[in-house]
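Re: beginner question about structure tokens

> Can someone show what the tokenized structure looks like for a real chain? I only ever see the sequence side.

Sure, here's an example I had lying around. Input first:
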Amino acid sequence: MPDFKPRLRDLGISIGRLPTGTLNAITDVPDVWVGQTTLVYDEPRVARTGVTAVLPRQGRIWREPAFAGFHAYNGCGEMTGTHWIEESGMLSTPICITNTGQVGNVHTAMGAYAVEHGFADDFELPVVAETYDGWLNDMTALHIQPEHVFAAFDAAGPGAVVEGCVGGGTGMICHEFKGGIGTASRVVETAGEVYTVGALVQANYGAREDLRLDGIPIGREISLEKVPSGWNEAPGAGSIIIILATDAPLLAFQCKRLAQRAVTGLARVGGYGHNGSGDIFLAFATGNRIDVSGGGPVEVRMLPNERINGLFHAAADAVEESIWNALLAAETTTGFRGRTAYAIPEEEVVRIWKQYQKKA
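And the corresponding structure tokens:
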């Protein structure tokens, strides 16, 4: 395998007009950390899976909640904790993303971690999201144990985020190519201040014929003879989890509005919210410090609704680029029952991109 896998911008391809953050990652949002545990082995049973953890406020989110909102574009999937987010308007735990069969194990482990580390006196309502990796991973083996969740938390930190076949994205497939974890960010100036919007995706959805890059039908241009499909049962099925973070002072209802704009980025790449797809998005905003320990009124700031259009653009662009970063970072993977999901060939992406630019 090559030591370096290009991101979209490494290929000379940029999406949108807004600048990226320093790392072009969700960790460009101050104090947002990411940690991952990846499980790859063949014995005693095949594992191609893992956990990706997003920790707002450097993990202090257990004690310092953030305004949040979520949106289900198509609900054939799971994200726990959303009823309380809808009710309270706040996110008060980290976010973990894993595979469909391990939501319960990860949920239990998150609660245990909070108690063991003094973040909670009793039990929380953790946020755990999933997509299905049973094509490449022997999911019924229940590989993920509490120590793997703890390891993802302990590994969390600032800086660049590893993408592709890592963490919860290890066994995922996107538009019939190998998929996984991807991230990107955008910087927005509005109301006289500068804010960052970051996205992280676990991409495991879509049909090849629908795959597009900034409007160019990349998927239709890469034949099955050239690159076989990595998903031979019901192409187009699958799911995507999208996490959006910002340091803008948004309230809960505005976070929900921001989460809804993930649909725009997903649609640009070719996501239609198919019947069997779990397309679930969560946005949180750290622009307010919410002290819930005092028991008294809390003063908060709010960016006027008329000033948040730039954040909507940022969310859509960052989501689109995150999905492409996931595709480009992923490597050809053989797993359960000898099935193989093939990486999208970046040289073909560049060739097709240039071909269409000449036609424009």
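Each token stands for a local structural state, so reading them left to right follows the chain. The domain at 8-289+301-359 is CATH 3.60.70.12 (L-amino peptidase D-ALA esterase/amidase).
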